[in-house]
Amino acid sequence: MADAPYLVALALLEIRGKRALPLAGRSLSATAAAAGDPGDDGKGLALELMLRLWQRSDEGPIQRVAGDDSLLLVEMPLEVMSEQLPLLKASWIAGGETGEFMENLHKLTLRGCCFLFAKYEPISYKPWP
């Protein structure tokens, strides 16, 4: 399964009080998969996801659900991303517990991190336990 790693950026949020879990993803090259840092691939996905969130702000106020851990970047096998992630996403959107979602997502990932944003600083990553 780990032969086809996939990088996924996702955001746990609410729009006008309704849960949403937008995501963006792309296949990883062998070089990027071997690197310890998501690098430009991760930053590109973060930008794509932020643009989607910005567009969705027309629907109403956006609020992070898990604080600083609301914007995640995870690496997982393609099969897991296409088969198990949609089920996990649907369960959380339907009202599942955020802590349980995070725990189950962690079990599906090969590695992951949270995006960190600080004024006047480049995007950085916090390893996800």
Describe this entry's structure for a reader.
The chain is of the alpha+beta class. It has one domain. Helix content is 38%, strand content 29%. The chain has a 5-stranded antiparallel beta sheet. α4 runs antiparallel to α5. The protein starts with a strand and ends with a strand.
List keywords for this structure.
single chain; 129 residues; alpha+beta; five-stranded antiparallel beta sheet; three-stranded antiparallel beta sheet; 29% strand; globular
Helix content: 25-40%
* Coarse morphology: globular
What is the mean pLDDT?
A: 87
Distance between the termini: 22 Å
- What count of helical segments does DSSP give? 5
Précis, in short:
This protein is an alpha+beta fold and 129 residues long. The protein has 5 helices and 8 strands, in the order ββββααββαααββ. It has a 5-stranded antiparallel β-sheet.
Q: Topology, pairings included?
A:
Elements: E1 5-11, E2 13-15, E3 18-20, E4 23-27, H1 30-34, H2 39-56, E5 62-64, E6 71-77, H3 78-83, H4 85-93, H5 98-108, E7 111-116, E8 124-127
Antiparallel strand pairs: 1-4, 1-6, 2-3, 2-5, 6-7, 7-8
Helix pairs in contact: 4-5
